[in-house]
Amino acid sequence: IYVMSILGFDKINYHKASPYFNTEVKNGLYLSYLTIRPVPARSNDILYTIESQYTHRPDLLAFDLYQTPDLWWVFAQRNLDTIRDPIYDFEAGVEIFLPQSELLRETLGVN
Predict the structure, then answer these.
(1) DSSP structure string for 24-82
(2) How far apart are CA 24 and CA 11, in angstroms?
(3) Which tens digit of pLDDT belongs to each residue from 13-40?
(4) Fewer Cβ in 10 A, N or C end of the chain?
């Protein structure tokens, strides 16, 4: 989250890796309704079985795959039929699709 001071008002701006990046900020301080950032399915997505060290820790898997924990939420967005709660449904043995980093660069504009 970046907070900027403009004419005495604080304004919140979210980083491109944030799930809130496209969500409107009301009065410079408050988030409106969440604007979903879709992560589309691609034929080259990798089917992956979550390992025990990543149970309830999508941030650790995001770091290992994309070198940033900030993309923890892309697993839930890509696997809406499997993951309803992005933390507690992220359990060992659950099969999910992993988006390729190129897709995240294209669709989200992240490095």
Answers:
(1) PEETTTEE-S---------TTPEEEEPPGGGTT-HHHHHHHHHS-GGGTTHHHHHTTTT
(2) 11
(3) 788 888 888 888 887 778 888 888 889 9
(4) N
Q: Find out whether 48 and 96 touch, Cβ atoms under 8 Å.
A: yes
Cβ atoms of 75 and 96 closer than 8 Å: yes
The answer to whether 36 and 96 have CB atoms below 8 angstroms apart is: no
Q: Compute the Cα dihedral for 64, 88, 44, 109 and give only its sign.
A: negative
- In this prediction the pTM is 0.80
